[in-house]
């Protein structure tokens, strides 16, 4: 609390001091971004949502094999990659629920849910050219987006659409081969874009080859002055090997090694451990303006995922068809209520619902040299989730902003074990879960602002937790839930060149779902008593133009996160973990970016990221060492004849050649925690872009 009080005093003092300075020309003001989350569609300055945005252009700082570096530039967000293609994301939380994949975070792509009804998101199906921006909301988003305590991710396209074409090729260490191409055509009233991406690498460790082909198509058509229709298709065909985790002794002796044979279990190489993954998602959105104040947006979609996973202990096959829809009614009205002598006040009311239905089938067989053998279990899973939401937004003279929202959520799941006779039926309902949220933001003079938010989040177990890789159906698991309290202070200094934002939050999570691993590497889950999460997030942005040889870009971004995550009352059997540090969460992370661009087209990017020690089990008896990552890139980009852009660059990641573990296996049996990340590696890239002028 002393730290928070000191920060508050600092902001009040500096606001008073810098408030005496005159404002500068608008060209010096830091760029405002539009926040789409919670249907706000307003600048970050006027939004009550705690949101950060990763744009395609400023997120392009590495070899584009993954999005890890981009996500880790945001305070409070941590992305991990156990091996190429295997992602984990946590937002203001831990990785306790994610042995692999993305859980407890709701993800949308062009308004279409990528999170399936069962709560899992195959985030690795996305490629770099599938988005123009990624919007990350931190904190429970259940008041409008249903189940989940871990946040919200909106993947947007068409934000910067222009007709033309682009082609990019990247090669580098470990036989890296990346190709990105896109074609955009049409007019402002009829936008179209087709993209293709190919990624492949042999990986740093043994048994870490990866190959992915990605295709997308998006179209946006203005049918009339009142109606707009958009459609999108996303397809991904992916293969990546899984090396398995190592003990500390194995990791120290040879971090490149794959998991060796142990007891009755073969090595990862002999088991041909890998993931074969195909995903297709298609949907359309219709926006109809009923009148000048009232409109409706309705999205319908269908998706199918096919997963084949030969692993050390078994061979799993999953077919996961799903479908759903989301409809939102939005009413906007300007009010005549006076506030500080002004009448620039607005009122917005949002109401709607979302429905998702999945009919999944999971078959587990014995793994025989990478092929399915004797069938062990065969399960049909019927998973239904839906919610109804209502939200009101008030804006008074563009100085005071209030958002209140609430949703009613219901989830039900039915299991049918077809491999047993008579057929075993198990079911569970998680219903009548209310998720309210209220957020108030006040803008003072000289760009100083204060935002306070109170919200409740809840998250029922996902299909992967109710039916983990042990094959034991666990319908006794409870949904986790909790209340989040946060405050954000923001200000600008030095004639609006320096932007500082500090957020402090406290989130008490009850019935927290915690992962365990048995000797074979299979995961299962238990409910902890409660987790008390306290954190401070700092984001800063500084931009300055020097003139004389420089273009106008000298930019520094710094993001720092302090986490104090502890178990409350958590007793399992004879083990008492109460008061222990929650594993998988570093107490401190720091990200720093520095960019310089010259008028002649030469530019450089420097990226730094560090994480403190990370505990790897609930007892806090094992940990991963702190690490520091430094990356740099230099290039030359030039615009030719106003229609063409060329960009050549070269870079190095992990310049300090750190040996560290990323994407650790938490609470693993036999102390198999460690998954080594690549050491120093290099890449070069060349891109060409043709921009066509838009006909009026």
Explain how this protein is built.
The longest helix has 17 residues, at 2-18. The protein is mainly beta and 696 residues long. A hairpin with a 5-residue loop joins strand 28 and strand 29. The chain has one domain (2-691): Beta Barrel (Maltoporin, Chain A). 5% of the residues lie in helices and 55% in strands.
How would you summarize this macromolecular structure in one to three sentences?
The protein has 5 helices and 40 strands. It has 696 residues and is mainly β. It has a single domain, classed as Maltoporin, Chain A (Beta Barrel), CATH 2.40.170.20.
Task: Give the averaged pLDDT, no decimals.
Answer: 87
Look at the helices and sheets and give the structural class.
mainly beta
CATH class: Mainly Beta
Count of helical regions = 5
> Could you say which overall geometry the principal axes of the C-alpha atoms support?
globular
Helicity level, as a percent range?
under 10%
Q: What's the N-to-C terminus distance?
A: 58 Å
- C-alpha-based Rg, rounded: 25 Å
What would CATH call the architecture? Beta Barrel
CATH topology description: Maltoporin, Chain A
Low-confidence stretches: 1-31
Number of strands: 40
